[in-house]
Amino acid sequence: MARCTHTSPAARPEYAVPRHIVPEAFRDFAFAELTTAPLHWPGICFNPDCARDFTLARDWQMYCCMACERAGTAELRAWGHRMALALLTWRMGKYEARDKAVRARTAAARRYLSQVQSAWLADRQARIARARQQGGGA
Questions:
Q1: Measured over all CA atoms, what is the biggest interatomic distance in the chain, rounded to whole angstroms?
Q2: CA-to-CA distance for 32 and 104, rounded, in angstroms?
Q3: What ranges do the domains of the chain cover?
Q4: Cα(first)–Cα(last) distance of the chain, in Å?
Q5: Exposed, middle or buried: residue 112 (CB in 10 Å: 0-12, 13-18, 19+)?
Q6: 41-70 pLDDT, tens per residue?
Q7: pTM (2 decimals)?
């Protein structure tokens, strides 16, 4: 196996600069706004496949149980992976004024994001309605 030549053999990982900057979570970034206008109905599970009524243990609680929270995290990751490249593409070309090919690529990324967001929202709404009909709600 070839040895990496980009790092010093004396370099220790615990002193290394992090590879990626990790932005703060959206919940933290928009805390005040989410407190005023939450994304979910308090007391109704945010997992669209569950959507059952539950008693809040904390006022910020979005899911009725850990299984629903894990399912929600998996859903966010799956949709996030689908949109990540388009998000980056859109941001990279957002202010391009001269290169028509980059502007077209940026517009395609923006259209794609709009289409995927609409599809995701429609899917979630349909799943919530189905879960509530099947007894997920009160």
A1: 62
A2: 36
A3: 23-133
A4: 60
A5: middle
A6: 999 999 999 999 999 998 889 999 999 999
A7: 0.74
